[in-house]
Amino acid sequence: MESILPFIQDHAPHAHWFIFGLLMLAGLNVPVSEDLLIIISGILASTFVPENTWKLFTAVFLGAYLSDWMVYWIGRLWGAHLWRMRWFARMFKPKRLEQIKQYYKKYGVLTLLVGRFIPFGVRNCLFATAGMGKMRFRKFLIGDGIACLLSNATLFTIAYFCGKNCSYFIRYFNVTIFATFVIALIAFIWYKKSKTITSAD
Prior knowledge:
Elements lengths: L3 H7 L4 H12 L7 H14 L5 H26 L7 H6 L2 H14 L2 H6 L6 H11 L4 H28 L1 H35 L1
């Protein structure tokens, strides 16, 4: 990711294509941070290429949504055979999959809605488990579609707002740091003086 992000920024007008492709790779468990790509997209949309805002949001939504389909069908078509693959066994712990199965039994599609906001490999476990459990694809499409739209729109909007108001945040941050330093300095001087007076007495 450290080498990819500067490349995306340098090619901002076409960033939506790169971001879409990277999110599709994330569906194959390539170590790509979906959240980081959404944040970068929001910042690019507000600073470098505001004319591509909808292209960037469409790229992050479709990239995330379609990659979810990939994980679902991998789980549904291969199921238990996936445990023979070392990378799958390493990324999808049996204990975590079992927990998610219990969540599906107890909460149904609501598991997708809540789980979509949880990063660090939980999402792909959700989708693979839905496939392994033979959840109806139409049900998965609707539930995950709503969850994906909500989570992506929320993170993208926050990143967009922060990017657009970055100068204000930096200014207020600097003012806060300076004020804190002055207060600490005054408190330190007052403490030293009061200690000197107490010693003299």
